[in-house]
Input
Amino acid sequence: MRLLVVLFLSVCSAALAAVPPELEAALKTFRSDPPPGWSFTQTTTAEGRSTVERCDAAQPGHARWSLVRKDDRAPTAAEIADYAEARSRRSRTGTAPRITEQLLLETLETVAADTERATYRCRLRRGENRDDTAQHLRATLVLHKPSGVIESITLANTEPFRPSFGLSIAEMKTEMIYALPAAAGAPSLPQRVTSRVRGKVFWVKSLDSEMTVTFSDYERAVKK
Output
């Protein structure tokens, strides 16, 4: 038994050591959301609806968020009040797991590489509450070598699957795109996130949905 444990640990160590140093460094500094100290506009479109929000990083807590437009029009006073309350509740619910913590780097493989970019693929960790969706997904990462930053991450299923009784998923894909740093030492800023699901409930009701989140009008925040 002891020999088996030693062999298992040796295999794991060898797998982890195989992670390219440039990718390991990029993952340590990677963040999926805009970095602190940056104000930006966030536009979300889904199911024929749209929401435009502004984040003023100079403001404290949830007060930094404001509702700019809703469904291509100015929001009503009631919608602004509901939005502020929702933002306040969201700030008390904690943060979501970081995508880098969900990557099983011991399964990493190199898909393509040249002098400019390297593309890697790996499996994902199992979700909480016995959620087996992750085992049907793969993460694809594109590393921009000159700047040493992650340029994109894509999570997508490798084949149709059934996460639960009566539910079938034909396609599940999320793609996150990041802008390259504008100058040395500058951060890599999120540009666009797209999510798409194609599936059915009991082979009749459609689950098809698509959402796009874009980030624009970045500005360095000035503390007030």
